[in-house]
Write a structure and sequence with these properties.
Radius of gyration of chain B: 19 Å
Number of helices of chain A: 14
Number of domains of chain B: 1
CATH topology of chain A: ABC transporter involved in vitamin B12 uptake, BtuC
CATH class of chain A: Mainly Alpha
Shape of chain B: globular
Largest interface: A-B, 47 and 51 residues
CATH class of chain B: Mainly Alpha
Helix content of chain A: over 70%
Oligomer: heterodimer
Number of strands of chain B: 0
Number of strands of chain A: 4
Number of helices of chain B: 13
Shape of chain A: globular
Largest sheet of chain A: 2 strands, antiparallel
Strand order of the largest sheet of chain A: 1-4
Radius of gyration of chain A: 21 Å
Number of domains of chain A: 1
């Protein structure tokens, strides 16, 4: 009853094309942003902000990046974590070696370096397709981690290969508490999500989708294959690179190359599968699910322990968690292959008619 | 020179071990178009079950039979619970489902048998062949040769199964065209269950071989990552490709490790195989023996 577009007339093209054409949607988005920017940093306690919500936002950004490549441009990639690693280590080097560089510029530089590497590893996509390409992207994952581990320059010749993120400040204002780090992350993520949303409904985004749906047909109607595919790799890697820099600076603090293993790549891939392939919102929903679900499982196992009065060993708990996690992924794929974003869409459609059935 | 031969031979024999794992992938991909990422954890599950049974004092052959039965049950269950509801989904969805399956299988095997590493002995010593090292000064492990023999027998059995039996013909028909196979009355579900069971058997063989070599531990699941470059090099659909790919990857990896590794600081085996495979793919995008893919609008 509340969520209805009756009476909302569009009289200009600008109105017709706006991101959220329904007033209720706009109100909801503004309210969400207000909550995220004002209420959460004030009300959230330190642990939640630094250990749960910030990584959630960072991983959403990485998922968004992968979604641009896999969901929109249709190129399956298993190397997202490698690009995050490049972003993290190059941002570190930018701050280290360029005196007085603003931190956001360092993040952007990290992202650009990741984009450059993405371009190189995107080249095989012009010739190799589908699952062969997915396996080929693993080359990127292993090679980049190996290079960062072996070449001392990346970690400023630290003996353990571990880097410590430098102090950040923006315009003289120190970013050192969980709340300020959260706000910085949120700002970057919000701006980049908006950019992605707009990019995906531009000519570039439509070219991506055409390539995804059928690349031969796309090239027949005049979409330049090389430019489109490489652009998809570059943009996606840029997003992942910035996410990696945020991961290092706003979440981890001390970073070792092992933080960016294949496991992380898979987690990011799970996020877009569960959230929804080819959906901006889906990236966030998926990241939220993958971040919060293990916490929920942990709580649930403690609850069961106290309920039944038994003590479960750590191994049993972690193994059952793996089993439940895996089964849930399979369950999701069977029940809703299009992900949480699709469920949200269905809910909105239902809500429009509620309380009437038709 | 003899050192070079030793390196190449060692690499070729290591390649056979990769090919053993890659075979399981190929079987399932051929028959159902599923890229089964869980093959690595199936290898782990099989090896862990087998070694745990033998450690409980079971007879070797009995343990082997029981593990094989368990693998068949797992294969059939996977077909029932996971794949049947996912018929007609895009390949990426199926791939994701098998990645989910990886978690389940790994969790299950460690829940059942614990996560401590085990050693595995088959009674074939992992020592160099004496007469070879005496005569030509080449060290080749006896066990490696045994593994190569097992792989050879396995491939021969699979080839017989595929070429000469009724089930094999049905398998090839399903691999060619699901719908046409259904139309002529081949029960697709049975065929898939059989393929998964056979893949489970291959996983068992690979698991035992790798278990003897490296011990049965969680790291066994990473064996799958070693098999992937073999797979794309040889082509997803070809059993021959898995063998040839394994040999190429194994030999080039060993040679590179010995001659190129010291130049760049070592540790290149994590990615070198992928680069070799990529180079081959740039020339033949479907792998050496993969089916040529023709795009039509």
């Amino acid at each position: 009853m509340l969520y209805r577009e009756a009476g909302q007339f569009k009289s200009t093209y600008a109105q017709d094309q706006q991101l959220f054409p329904i007033v209720q949607d706009r109100i909801a988005v503004v309210a969400l942003l207000l909550v995220a920017f004002i209420v959460v940093p004030l009300a959230g306690d330190q642990y939640w902000l630094s250990a749960i919500i910030t990584p959630f936002l960072v991983l959403s950004l990485a998922a968004l990046g992968l979604n641009i490549l896999t969901g929109y441009a249709g190129q399956l990639s298993l190397g997202a974590a490698a690009f995050m690693a490049i972003g993290a280590f190059m941002a570190y080097n930018a701050v280290l070696r360029i005196p007085g560089i603003p931190i956001l510029a360092a993040f952007a530089l990290g992202g650009l370096c990741a984009a450059a590497v993405g371009l190189v590893f995107g080249l095989p996509s012009l010739r190799i397709k589908g699952l062969y390409l997915a396996v080929a992207t693993l080359a990127c994952q292993f090679f980049v981690l190996w290079a960062i581990n072996r070449i001392g320059w990346f970690s400023n010749y630290s003996s353990s290969g571990v880097i410590t993120a430098q102090r950040m400040d923006i315009l003289g204002y120190a970013i050192d508490t969980p709340a300020t780090k959260y706000l910085l992350t949120l700002l970057v993520v919000a701006v980049m999500a908006l950019a992605a949303k707009n990019l995906m409904r531009s000519e570039t985004g439509r070219a991506f989708m055409a390539v995804r749906d059928m690349d031969v047909a796309a090239s027949v109607i005049g979409i330049p294959m090389m430019k489109t595919k490489l652009l998809a790799f570059a943009i996606s890697s840029f997003y992942c690179g910035v996410a990696g820099a945020l991961y290092a600076y706003c979440y981890l603090g001390t970073v070792e190359p092992e933080a960016f293993t294949l496991d992380l790549s898979f987690r990011v891939l799970f996020m877009i599968i569960i959230g929804g392939v080819g959906s901006i919102l889906g990236s966030f929903l998926g990241a939220a699910f993958i971040t919060f679900f293990p916490i929920f499982l942990n709580l649930a196992s403690k609850w069961i322990e106290t309920m039944l009065g038994i003590e479960m060993s750590h191994a049993v708990v972690s193994n059952s968690e793996a089993i439940i996690f895996g089964s849930l992924i399979i369950f999701f794929l069977i029940v809703e292959p299009l992900g949480l974003a699709r469920l949200w869409q269905v809910a909105k459609e239902k809500l429009r008619l509620w309380p009437f059935p038709h | 020179m003899s050192f070079f031969i030793e390196v190449v031979a060692g690499g070729l024999l290591a390649g056979v071990m990769y090919a053993l794992v890659a075979l399981g992938f190929v079987l399932i991909y051929k028959a159902s178009g599923v890229f089964n990422f869980a093959q690595g954890s199936m290898v782990f599950f099989a090896a862990l079950t087998f070694v745990s049974l033998t450690e409980r004092g079971w007879n070797l052959w009995l343990a082997l039979a029981v593990t094989l039965a368990a693998m068949v049950v797992v294969g059939v269950a996977i077909e029932r619970i996971v794949l049947r509801p996912l018929v007609n989904q895009p390949p990426i969805t199926l791939l994701m489902a098998t990645i989910g399956l990886t978690f389940v299988l790994e969790g299950m095997s460690q829940l059942m048998w614990g996560s401590q590493p085990h050693g595995l002995e088959l009674g074939i010593p992992d020592v160099p062949m004496e007469w070879l090292s005496e005569k030509w000064n080449i060290n080749i492990s006896q066990f490696d040769l045994f593994a190569a023999g097992v792989a050879g027998v396995l491939v021969a059995v699979l080839a017989l199964l595929f070429q000469k039996t009724r089930i094999g013909r049905a398998l090839r028909a399903v691999a060619d065209d699901h719908q046409a196979a259904l139309a002529v009355g081949i029960p697709l579900q049975h065929i898939w269950a059989i393929v998964w069971a056979v893949a489970g058997f291959v996983a068992l063989v690979a698991g035992v071989m790798w278990g003897v070599r490296n011990g049965v531990q969680y790291a066994l699941t990473f064996v799958a990552l070693k098999a992937l470059p073999v797979l794309i090099l040889g082509g997803f659909e070809s059993i021959l490709g898995a063998i040839v790919g394994g040999l190429i990857i194994g030999a080039s990896e060993k040679v590179a490790e010995v001659y190129l590794g010291p130049m760049v600081g070592g540790g290149i085996e994590s990615w070198f195989a992928y680069v070799v495979a990529l180079l081959f793919l740039l020339v033949r995008p479907e792998g050496l023996f993969g089916e040529k893919h023709i795009d039509r609008v």
